[in-house]
Design a protein that fits this description.
The protein has 260 residues and is mainly α. It is 75% helix and 5% strand. The chain is built from ten helices and three strands. It has helices at residues 11-14, 37-59, 64-71, 73-85, 90-109, 113-137, 142-169, 173-198, 210-222, 226-259, and strands spanning 2-6, 21-23, 26-30. The protein has a three-stranded antiparallel β-sheet, with helices on one face. Helix 4 packs across helix 6 and helix 8 packs parallel to helix 10 (226-259). It starts with a strand and ends with a helix.
């Protein structure tokens, strides 16, 4: 098997081409030669990250979450309007979603993964409806968005915290490490975006935003495969945070070039 790669992006990789064979402007790396394996892995990582950064940039105007909101607007708006007529405040829906996720986390902590996954699934619409209700009432505000974002973080930590408690009781340290990494990635995805916004940059999108994390976690919990979902989140949530960091770096460098 041969992988072709064009030189010229990371100095560290460019400095270790001693085992490579040059073909014109490209490089052929033979995987049979174990000496080139670190180079090959570095190239794949570099290509994956840089391609995904370009995709992140393209996702900025409307990411997957925004697209779903638009597509399901005609379903959510009638339900939100009905709830508004009942006099239910949007913040009540936000709190109900949080409570549901906490209850789901409690079931997960006791090893009832399917039940916990179904409760988390049932709590999802509350998070979608609170924003729609506030918009229809004309009460959308920065504070409402702030509360919604904070409760989202607590909800996610309640779910992962329940899994962490369960695996601590099982004395499964590898699983605990995976849950910890998943929690770190989930928090860092949100933190990078918040920090980027605070200094005037955008950092939306990426491979595994909150909605995608739920789309991974809920089915794996429901089918009693929690470690599969946690492992995916542990890897790709941290990669998403790194994507956003690189995208902010790209914006900062572009701004510096314009100012020179």
């Amino acid at each position: 098997m041969t992988v072709r790669y064009r030189r010229g992006s990371i100095p560290l990789i460019n400095s270790i081409w001693t085992k490579s064979q040059f073909y014109g402007s490209g490089v052929a790396l033979k995987l049979q030669d174990l000496n080139t394996l670190p180079v090959w892995c570095g190239i794949l990582w570099e290509r994956l990250v840089y391609i995904s950064v370009d995709q992140t940039a393209k996702q900025q105007p409307g990411n997957f979450t925004d697209q779903l909101r638009v597509r399901f607007k005609y379903i959510l708006d009638p339900v939100a309007a009905f709830l508004n007529r009942l006099g239910i405040p949007p913040n009540t829906m936000t709190i109900l979603g949080l409570v549901g996720n906490v209850i789901g986390g409690i079931f997960l902590s006791q090893g009832f993964f399917t039940i916990g996954g179904l409760i988390v699934l049932a709590s999802g619409p509350f998070d979608a409806l609170d924003g729609a209700m506030a918009r229809l009432l004309g009460r959308s505000s920065e504070f409402g968005g702030f509360i919604d974002s904070v409760t989202d973080r607590y909800s996610e930590m309640a779910i992962l915290g329940g899994l962490l408690y369960y695996y601590l009781q099982e004395d499964n340290w590898w699983a605990c490490l995976l849950v910890y990494l998943a929690a770190c990635g989930s928090v860092m995805v949100s933190y990078v975006r918040a920090k980027a916004n605070s200094v005037g940059f955008e950092a939306k999108g990426g491979m595994l935003t909150r909605l995608e994390r739920y789309l991974v976690l809920i089915p794996t919990l429901t089918f009693n495969l929690p470690l599969v979902g946690v492992s995916i989140i542990a890897l790709f949530a941290n990669m998403t945070a790194f994507q956003r960091i690189l995208y902010v770096r790209k914006q900062a460098h572009s701004l510096m070039r314009k100012s020179d």
